[in-house]
Amino acid sequence: MALNLLIFLIFILISTIFLPSTALITPKLHNPLAPTPYGFTSPPNSSFPTLRAAPPPSNSLVPALFVIGDSTVDCGTNNFLGTFARADHLPYGRDFDTHRPTGRFCNGRIPVDFLAQRLGLPFVPSYLGHAGAVEDMIQGVNYASASAGVIFTSGSELGQHISFTRQIQQFMDTFQQFVLTMGENAAADHISDSVFYISIGINDYIHYYLFNISRVQNLYPPWNFNQFLATTIKQEIKNLYNMNARRIVVMGLAPIGCAPFYLWQYGSVNGECIEEINDMVMEFNFAMRYIVEELGMELPDLSIIFCDLLQGSMDILKNHERYGFNVTSDACCGFGRYNGWILCISPLMACKNASNHVWWDQFHPTDAVNAILADNVWNGLHTTMCYPKNLQDVINSQG
């Protein structure tokens, strides 16, 4: 515990050097003239025309993509919050389409960017990053927030975040706006035809269970903790179902026992994964797969799939040469052994070529890995990791 506290204090000190002080204590306010994925939005009462999102293109397979989760799929939510969990500075985003930081915890695209492309949709905007009009949300919204977990306080030591339950509430607000604007039937049809992507739970281990907050490990053995998380997620999925969500992708957890941070913290000798951590992840994924199967049988007309990130990621690690990766344990960006001691906070800390690395920073994969995992979610191109079917099968089966 003392070591973790020391690391956190060092991170705070370094962050104050590299980030503007106001960014650490004051959430960013939305700039109405800032570019969005759909163009520029003029301020209220402006004499300039307002450009809004066009209707879904004719080649789109679904009307919208809604994303709920943590830093694995955050596309900029935390840019607007007072938190240390931010990716609004280089080298984050250096290999993105704009070559600028966007709030994504990656050198480039995150999995939902690749899936949006597969679905024929534009990149989904952050809930806190759009102007608030229905036209800006009609093709989807990303509610994900870095450091968020199933447990409300998970990740709170880093500052503000939008918890899992609060993200569901934000979608409820969005749905109500759709109903008021489009009418109840049209809004219900729009939601039922859309895809929901849920990726949550890893911070409940990183920032809560493994951190042993409130001595939780003494109270709950891993399996009981897994059951608690899984049943909570199940209830929130039912809440989405009650708002007419019918196509849902539930992501399992990645093998964080192989992440550079834990390789450094646990003193891995030759880059071997920390099996006791991966065993917890495996148990959680097993519990979630069972929950997803239950929901598929309990709820009429629900097409829900579970995608095992541990399984897909371990395939990449074990067959890294086939995928073109020659660095599997060291992060591209960071400091210390395995670049796992300190977060990626400066371009000087990053490797030149991220495409041959599995890990981008302490916990997050490179966009090359994200592309492979997104392919597997879509159609199992590289290996089967989604059950009972892939996302493409879900779309095709419902027309």
UniProtKB/TrEMBL annotation:
Keywords: Hydrolase, Lipid degradation, Lipid metabolism, Signal
One Pfam family it belongs to: Lipase_GDSL
Signal peptide: 1-23
Superkingdom: Eukaryota
Annotated GO biological process: lipid catabolic process
Coiled coil: none
GO MF annotations in UniProt: hydrolase activity, acting on ester bonds
Family, similarity comment: Belongs to the 'GDSL' lipolytic enzyme family.
PANTHER family linked: GDSL LIPASE/ACYLHYDROLASE FAMILY PROTEIN (AFU_ORTHOLOGUE AFUA_4G14700), OS02G0290900 PROTEIN
Protein name: GDSL esterase/lipase At1g71691
Source organism of this protein record: Cucurbita maxima (Pumpkin)
Gene: LOC111483416
